[in-house]
Specification:
The complex is a heterodimer of chains A (175) and B (155). Chain A is an all-alpha fold. Chain A is built from 6 helices and no strands. In chain A, helix 2 crosses helix 5, helix 3 packs antiparallel against helix 4 and helix 5 packs antiparallel against helix 6. Chain A is elongated and about 85 Å long. Chain B is an all-alpha fold and 155 residues long. Classes of the chains: A mainly alpha (175), B mainly alpha (155). Chains A and B meet through helix 2, helix 3 and helix 4 of A and helix 1 of B. Chain B: Its main location: mitochondrion. Chain B: This is NADH dehydrogenase [ubiquinone] 1 alpha subcomplex subunit 13. Chain B: It is a single-pass membrane protein.
């Protein structure tokens, strides 16, 4: 490893939080509601990932995301256990790719339960593929580009061009 | 005595019907066809239009399902990435401690350097994603190889 002692790493205790021990079909069944429930925190975390390019700086946001997801699953377990189990079972066993198409009936039952208890409607089928604007108070990271003292002055378009010396060669150009 | 001659007929001879035979049909007779040009073209146009409409709706449904799958994946990705990142940082910590434990009998050794010669001199605290072989440096050879080749074994 090239990590010296000067490299700050969060300790294992700091990184240990309750994780979500669920299989893929269960996650797939909950995905749309989960994404809607934790939308702001997910966006914050992904923005951090893209802007900082350093997993150490996004640990707090990642913990928020996991805590939010855990909270969502606890609520589902409390209110809609039966409906969700039915739906996840259908997702698991209806197709090899965990697709949603064969499970619309159980899905409508689950959606109704979520709407009644969590007060959240299922987002449209392409909701998370849409581009969105994320409102945040997060400061933009500073890009420290090196400054060279002897660099050439950048050209501007304000400066007028010289008159052409050999007739009108500038017919097709701007001036 | 054996003879091949037939006995003479006693019946009256076969004669043409009265008024003579019917005239031979020597003109070309066309076969009866159902698919005329107009019907064929009409069937082609109608079936193409009907098929195109059905294809449009079926394809729209297929595309919607694809988008729905992608949407679900995007919705759960932040959670999975957060968990993966924490596991990754934990493993970096474990690797550094493993190296310290491994080289504890060498007093000249400093962790993360080759006898106090670091790889990155000016950027101590900047994150570089380690190479795979470096990240798995203290693992068993079988585990390293299996994880590299795992995608060839799966489906």
């Amino acid at each position: 490893m090239v990590l010296t002692d000067k490299f700050d790493l969060p300790t294992i205790e700091e990184l240990t939080v309750p994780e979500i021990n669920l299989t893929f079909p269960t996650l797939q069944a909950a995905a749309h509601h989960l994404g809607k429930y934790c939308e702001w925190k997910n966006h914050e975390f992904m923005l951090c990932k893209v802007e900082e390019e350093d997993p150490r700086k996004c640990v707090k946001e990642g913990k928020d995301v996991t805590a939010c997801s855990l909270e969502f699953f606890q609520k589902i377990k409390k209110h809609c256990r039966k409906e969700f189990d039915q739906y996840a079972n259908c997702i698991d066993k209806s197709s090899g790719s965990s697709s949603f198409a064969p499970c619309r009936k159980t899905q409508s039952v689950f959606d109704k339960c979520v709407l009644d208890n969590l007060g959240q409607e299922r987002p449209g089928y392409g909701y998370f593929c849409e581009a969105k604007v994320h409102e945040t108070s997060r400061p933009k990271p500073k890009y420290n580009a090196p400054e060279f003292p002897n660099a050439a002055v950048p050209m501007t378009t304000d400066e007028p061009l010289l008159p052409p010396r050999y007739g009108s060669r500038r017919v097709l150009s701007a001036n | 005595m054996y003879t091949t001659t037939t006995p003479p007929k006693t019946n009256p001879q076969d004669m043409p019907p009265k008024g003579g035979y019917e005239p031979l049909t020597w003109k070309r007779q066309k076969l009866k066809t159902f698919f005329t040009v107009k019907k064929t073209l009409g069937l082609y146009v109608i079936s193409t239009i009907a098929g195109s409409i059905g294809y449009f709706y079926a394809m729209r449904d297929v595309k919607r399902e694809e988008i729905e799958m992608r949407s679900a994946r995007q919705a759960m990705l932040p959670m999975l990435i957060a968990e993966r990142d924490r596991a990754f940082l934990k493993q970096l910590n474990i690797n550094r401690e493993e190296e310290r434990e491994l080289m504890k009998n060498d007093p000249e050794w400093e962790v993360g350097t080759y006898y106090r010669e670091p790889v990155y001199i000016t950027v101590d605290n900047q994150f570089h994603e380690p190479r795979y072989q470096e990240f798995m440096g203290h693992a068993e050879y079988f585990d390293v190889t299996y994880r590299m080749l795992r995608r060839h074994f799966m489906s």
